[in-house]
From TrEMBL:
Pfam families: Abhydrolase_6. This is Alpha/beta fold hydrolase. The keyword Hydrolase applies. Transmembrane segments: none annotated. One of its GO terms (cellular component) is membrane. Keywords: Hydrolase. Residues 26-245 form the AB hydrolase-1 domain. GO terms for molecular function: hydrolase activity.
């Protein structure tokens, strides 16, 4: 994938692009992560699909911002769509990226062909205050991994950065906490506002969603398919082949 950038809201925002003549799919990562997390999925969907994996504000190689509201994140996606000069795209997102995907579809329905929502509900309410313990520079990569913990560290490896005097994360933990606080809330109206095809993928071992809640999301919104796969909250990393297969199957019939 080739790295490119665009400018919006006084920020330089980075993204990875498979290129090619295929239809456009914009992939939006979870909190703390970055576009590189979708590299394997992009390879699985190419060349039929041109995958754009964005580093959202404050993440990866994109600039840090002063504000992380819902309007800010959705505005960035709108600016990316304009920058790419595509009429319609499929939006795929995990967690934070999933809410951004279905809210963008609600606010800009004419620009969205379909959505793939990966393990996030319509009313997120998570406490991310523990990320404040990740602030600062650590003497070694191992020390940073140890601070993050065995369960979460594998999902953040793309965000590890070497500095002149140690290791740190690409994002600022305080900004991530603010993003989570802004993300929490009742988004049912946005989830139910559209009728484009939707694939809702839940990880069977997820600590973030429940089967009952996701079942309600699928039952209440027309044209929505719920699939539960082995894996946790980050299904595309826990079960890359299963996730790619179900996404490819969904996209094939659009």
């Amino acid at each position: 994938m080739t790295r490119s950038q665009f400018h919006h809201d006084d920020l330089t925002l980075s993204y990875l692009d498979t290129g090619g003549e295929g239809q456009t799919l914009i992939a939006l990562h979870a909190l703390w992560m970055e576009g590189a997390t979708y590299t394997r999925l992009a390879a699985a969907l190419s060349p039929e699909w041109r995958v754009i994996a964005m580093d959202q504000r404050g993440h990866g190689y994109s600039d840090h911002a002063l504000s992380y509201t819902r309007k800010d994140y959705i505005g960035d996606v709108a600016a990316l769509v304009e920058h790419l000069e595509v009429d319609k795209a499929v939006l795929l997102g995990n967690s934070l990226g999933g809410v951004n995907a279905y809210q963008f579809a609600a606010w800009y329905p004419e620009r969205v062909k379909a959505v793939v929502i990966e393990d996030i509900g319509a009313a997120p309410d998570a406490d991310a205050s523990f990320v404040l313990a990740w602030e600062g520079i650590f003497p070694s990569r191992e020390a940073l991994e140890e601070r993050i913990g065995q369960r979460l560290a594998p999902y953040l490896l793309d965000s590890f950065r070497a500095t002149t005097n140690g290791w740190r994360l690409a994002f600022e933990p305080r900004e991530m906490l603010e993003s989570q606080l802004q993300l929490n809330g009742d988004h049912w109206a946005d989830w139910l506002a559209t009728k484009c095809p939707a694939l809702l993928v839940r990880g069977k071992e997820s600590r973030i969603t429940t089967q009952d809640h996701c079942g309600q999301m699928a039952a209440r919104r027309p044209n929505t398919r719920l699939v539960t796969l082995d894996g946790g909250h980050v299904v595309h990393q826990d079960n890359p082949s299963g996730f790619a297969d179900i996404v490819r199957e969904f996209l094939h019939v659009l």
